Amino acid sequence: MHESAIALIDCNSFYASCERVFRPDLLRTPIVVLSNNDGCVIARSADAKPYVKVGAPYFQIKHDLKRWGIVPFSSNYALYGDMSERVMSVIESLVPALEVYSIDEAFADLTGIPGSLEQLGREIRAKILQNTGIPTGVGIATTKTLAKLANHAAKRWHRQTGGVVDLRDPEKRDKLLKVTPVGEVWGIGRKLTAHLQGMNITNAWQLAQADTAFIRQQFSVVVEKTARELRGTACLGLDDALATKQEICCSRMFGQRLKEIAPIREAVATYAARACEKLRKQGSLCKQVRVSIRTGMFNPEEAKYAKGILCELPYPTDDTRLITKAATAGLQHVFRDGYAYSKAEILLLDLRQHGEFTDDMFATTQPAAAEQVMAVLDQINSKWGRGTLRPAGVPAAPEWAMRREMMSPGYTTKFCELWGVRAK
Fold first, then answer.
1. Distance CA 348, CA 332 (A)
2. Do the beta carbons of residue 147 and residue 175 sit within 8 Å?
3. Fewer CB within 10 Å, N- or C-terminus of the chain?
4. CA 206/CA 227 separation, integer angstroms
5. β-bridge partners, 143
6. What does 49-78 look like in DSSP terms, one character per residue?
């Protein structure tokens, strides 16, 4: 029987790396990526980290960024999502099983693969870099938790490791555990760290050596599994398929305060259409939709108001038209004049898969024609780009849209913004 071998492939400074792929002139220039409405820093390239903290408000540091030579970008989630899919497809072509853990990292099962797994890790890194331009780190170990630590070490000591660390050797594993603070272990948060330190468990090796029954009694079975995984005992399996979401949310801050219901209605219709795209992508139907709006909550000079309403749909559906109609009707009930609104949210609830519920033989069900219309809608938008075909209530370029004044083009998601090459 082969020893378990799990690899974690993690993209380096993913958002910043995506921007650099199409801006090679910024290869050695520090980059930060901003949140919605260019509010605060949410991502940094490695060379920007000594200067800027995550969460720093942009309006406070924009002059400092210019002085330090750091280039800011508005978040371009369409680009990042597409680049993520490209990275994952490359990894999937090289390994027998893959679990996409987040937009920029994935676990791969390497159990039973002959030859040097460290060399395989280098081949995976090289292939991803060649096909997408995204740099990565690879950590290999016998468990997921150790693979996370190995990946961290691969990035931290990149020059010595070449971006790949194989931690299956017990001696090498224990050496790393002894220099890793317990707070850096996957799943150990700030409160748990303080509690463990109070018990003289300050590094990962001490947690691995702790009595598991005592750990479970003091904390939970989750922390016990973490301790076992640090010893090399696999407790967390590889999930081949992503779990179906039990609720789907779409919410955005407006680019400006809105006082009239008309632009808010456009925003609600836009968010409902996007949520329905996600709903159909996972093959689900929705029976309830919640719409909510709120004002800004932090300006003491602004009147505050927040309200939401749950709208029951006549039958489980994925029809954008029906869900949008319910959401905009709900908006009428919660909107109040005299307030400056900053955000709207659509939440799809009571999700069911096709065939997972028993229809009332006398109740109305979603017409087959509605499913056909939605299928055509998705096919057209998939081929020609999101928003090519959309409900009439969804504007192409709304004035209330988020501020993204420094957003890069949709190099891979919009035909009109493809990367161009000019002859001199």
1. 18
2. no
3. C
4. 9
5. none
6. TTT--TT-BHHHHHHHHHHHTPEEEE--HH
pLDDT confidence tier of residue 412, bands split at 50, 70 and 90: confident
Give phi and psi for 307, each to the nearest 5: -155, 145
Residue type, 30: P
Strand ranges, E, within 193-274: 248-258
State the Cα angle at 51 between 45 and 56, rounded to 5°: 85
What is the C-alpha separation between 191 and 384, in angstroms, rounded? 48
**Residue found by looking up tokens 């030579």 in the block:** 69
pTM for the full predicted model: 0.76
Determine contact, residues 287/319, Cβ cutoff 8 Å: no
Kindly state the percentage of the chain with pLDDT values over 70: 95
Burial category of 154 from C-beta neighbours within 10 Å (exposed 0-12, middle 13-18, buried 19 and up): buried
Would you mind telling me the total number of residues written for the chain in this entry? 424
Listed residue (335, 310, 234, 240) closest to 1, CA to CA: 234
Residue 200's CB is within 10 A of a number of other CB atoms, namely 8
| Residue of 170, 171, 172 whose CA lies nearest to 161 | 172
Q: What is the pLDDT of residues 286-311, one digit of tens each?
A: 999 999 999 988 778 889 999 999 99
Q: Are 367 and 221 in contact (CB under 8 A)?
A: no
For residue 308 the two structure tokens come to 């939401």
3-class SS at 358?
coil
Return the SS3 of 212: helix
**Which band of pLDDT confidence, cut at 50, 70 and 90, is reported for residue 167?**
very high
Give Cβ neighbours of residue 247 (< 8 Å, ≥ 6 apart).
Answer: 347, 348, 349, 351
How high is the pLDDT of residue 401?
76
CA distance 424 to 413: 27
Burial class, 107, CB count within 10 angstroms (exposed 0-12 / middle 13-18 / buried 19+): buried
**Tokens linked to 285:** 């139907």
Note whether 289 and 321 are within 8 A (CB).
Answer: no
**139 residue type, one letter:** G
